[in-house]
Amino acid sequence: MAAASRHGALRGAVLAATALAVVSLAAPAAAQAPEGHGIAGFWSMARGAMPPRRDPTPTEAELMALLPDDAVVLADSGLNEFPPGDYGGLAVHEHLREAAKDYDPAEQTTVSTTCRPPGLIYSMQGPFPIEIFEGRDLIVIKLEYFDLVRVIFMNETEHPDDWPHSQTGHSIGRWDGDTLVVDTVKLAPGTLFNNGVEHSGDVRLLERFRLADPDTLVVTQQFEDPGSFTGIAARVMTFERGDDHVYPYDCDPAYGLSMDSRQGPDTR
Amino acid sequence: MRSSLVLLLLAATGALAHHSAPVFYKVQERITVSGTVTEFRFANPHAILKFDVVGDDGEVQHWTAETTSPSILRRRGWSQQSFTPGEKVTLEGMPSVDGSYLMRITRAFREDGTEIGLPPGTDN
Q: How much is the mean pLDDT over chain A?
């Protein structure tokens, strides 16, 4: 896409996002009842285990059947995380495994790091809700987690070469029947697993969103990053509709000071 | 107010997450601590309660109690007004790994025994 038309599309996206925000402020949460393809609204991660920790539901199975045959489906969706040195069967490159041995998770709570958002791929399967706004030319996904906002361009078919890397990257989407297919690149290096391994800026994420019923949304991730691991990783997650909006996160780095200033006889 | 420490071993496992509880806390143990609130900061990523406890030796211990995200807490009935400086509270939670006066709240009670909101959880 030419730069001029892309910038025009971006202005349109901003205007549309603003309009969506105005609509959402003016209307009660219930007014977000499904329109368009029905995915708009407030969604929270369903409680309990996700595949492959349990058998998939019919819709989960349908989307899992669309994953590449050799994809490694990670068992850390939702509230589960892998301990140090465990990468869920993914062939993480040796140099990253070695580097992860020196990782200290306490570093997440310093003043300078505590408000640094985890990577988007990781954040999408975290415990915080999301809110989806569906427009004609774009879909906006607000994550409560660290106030991340994703703009999915439905009116673009190629990723611009000069798009900057960021926490949310550049996403283009299309509807394949009843399934929203989203392709994302230009993600800044970020959390792959919360145990010291990060993906590179070359990671490519493909997501599928499909309603199992009006109040149940199934999402799959598949992502590749040849510089970080061999093959394809995947996750499966299910969200439940709620009558709410995501709250501002407004992360306060002073949390790090509170942790550092703790007192006691054996402190550090 | 005197400190009241009760140690329980629980079978539950703590979920890891960003700002992981197991980094700072013994997630399978529980303590109960009573003290006087000095400060409550209701902000992400995790709300922080400061409170003072008079130890058995008469010395004042300055405690820090961490909860989960205010985004989650609001939906469980918590707010910036959940604690007032000067009020006496009793907190249940995970003890610190390093022995410092630090805990992760799993339940909170006013002096009359009234529970403050729903249990905050430890999943984020």
A: 86
